Every structure is written in structure tokens, then in C-alpha cells.
């Protein structure tokens, strides 16, 4: 698949926006990362006066065959139950989306069961749960390609110019850790962690299972091959969504470990996508901070989160909105008739 992602590096535009920021009524650089986000926003949109329009928070949901190996503290049926909870407005992300005025959609990318039609739910299955990657590829090549195409098509029809990533899928820290190990070459012990709350014995079991999955697919070394063999339906769908969002010059707000796995695969396919991504937070999940460093990404906040669901993306949203308004509305020294530094 070919995604035409623009080069977000524009030195002339960057210089003009930086000059505007430097002329605001403050010491230069005193708003720190907020100024950097404002500059990034301008580069992503390709204009001096960027605007954040109709932000869309999308929960990519899917099930994973590797859950049968006991790698999660929760049973697989919790995926379906939590999707219903989100649609009913009772999940943490439902509360945060309401608080911050974020449009919330749950995208069924490959939940094992089918859902009845419901407001806020979009069916986009590439499969009914992935296969167990310790015994077979998680997705067939056709399923993986369909998932990417589904994610791209969904974003093309989505309003607004901001995509906030969330996910739901019991055991999905396992495919995320597998992708990290395969894409980075790190040992699985440096990539996988407690997930939903495993005890030390549970973590040791999880590591052994994940090593078996890696050993089962030694030839899956390209980004697409690794995604099919080791990933999952919601991660693959997110890959397509991220690539399409970047191609459309939409800002992508990344949540935690699982959404980072999708962005990392997308960046392995097309490195320019990283220019469109704001990484919201550093997860408490083992490996996330290390992966962010390898991607050259710096998270906005570190709140010890490991919930997923897009919760970190939603919590970081006010900071991103503040960057837009600082650039748009803060007075300059000249317009406010304030003396600048000598």
C-alpha cells in the first residue's frame, strides 16, 4: 500500500512560526514544550495559523488468540464487556472524552464476538480475533492488509484534523511487546511487562510464551511480515489509520504502549509519520520508555498510567489545545505595547 506522507520539515515556515512565538509577551522559550507543540502543529498543517478542528478519539478494539496462553490477568470476554461499557459512557475514556469535548468512536477491528449496531460503534472487522501467534501467524497476510485498508478508509471519512489513538483488547500488550522485540532487536524481557496487572510468576510465564511466539516466526522481519505474524487486528488497523492521518496532515495524538506499537510499525513503513505524532505520556508498562527513546519521542507527561483506552491521549489534550491558543491568541510585545528584553 502506498501512502503519500508529506515531509513536515519546512525551515521557512518553521522560522516564521518561531519568530511569532518569540515575539509573544514572555521570555523566549519560557513556555517550553507548549511552544514546541505549537510549532509542530503548524508544520503538520503546513500553515502559520494552525487550528485544531473536531478532534476524534478512536478506540481500536480487537481480540488476540495468544490470550489462550494465559498472558493476561483478565479473561478474553472482558474485551466485549469493556466495549459495551465504553458505549454506555461508563469507562474512564468515556468520562475523559466527555470532559474534554472529544468525539469518541469505538472501531471494532476484530473483536471475537459481533456487536449489535449501536451509536458510537463502527464495524470494521478484518477477523474475529487473531490466531495464537505461538502456533500460527496472528493474522494472515490478507487479514493484515485488510486491517490496514480498513484503518485508512475509516480515517479518510472521519471529520476534523486531529486523531487521538486509543485501544481495547485483552492481552494486547503481548503483541505490542512482540512487535517491539522484533522491530528493535531487543530481548523480550526488555519489552514486555505486567500488562493488566500480572504478578511476578505471571510475568515470567508471559515472557516464556512471548519467546515461543518470536521463535515460531523467525523470518517475519519486515514491518508488514512482523505485523501479520506477531501483531493483532486493532494494531494493524491503527497502522493504516496513522499512515492515512499523516498523509492528510492530521495531528496524531499517541496514547501508551499499544498505540506506540502501531505508530512504530507505521514509522518503519514510512518514517515521516513521526512528524505528525504527539506522544502524550510515558506509560508505566515496561519497555514503553525505552521504545519512545528509540523512536526519538519525548512524552508530554508521566503520570504512571497503564490503563490504555486512549486515557493518556485524552489527559494530554488540554496541553495540546493550549499550544494552539497560545499561538493564535497571545499578544505580541508590539500589539500589547509591552517592552521586550534588550
UniProtKB/TrEMBL annotation:
The gene is cobT. GO terms for molecular function: nicotinate-nucleotide-dimethylbenzimidazole phosphoribosyltransferase activity. Its EC number is 2.4.2.21. HAMAP family: CobT (MF_00230). It catalyses: 5,6-dimethylbenzimidazole + nicotinate beta-D-ribonucleotide = alpha-ribazole 5'-phosphate + nicotinate + H(+). Keywords: Cobalamin biosynthesis, Glycosyltransferase, Transferase. Pathway: Nucleoside biosynthesis; alpha-ribazole biosynthesis; alpha-ribazole from 5,6-dimethylbenzimidazole: step 1/2. Catalyzes the synthesis of alpha-ribazole-5'-phosphate from nicotinate mononucleotide (NAMN) and 5,6-dimethylbenzimidazole (DMB). Belongs to the CobT family. The active site is at 309 (proton acceptor). It comes from Rubrivivax gelatinosus (Rhodocyclus gelatinosus). This is Nicotinate-nucleotide--dimethylbenzimidazole phosphoribosyltransferase. GO terms for biological process: cobalamin biosynthetic process. It comes from the Bacteria.
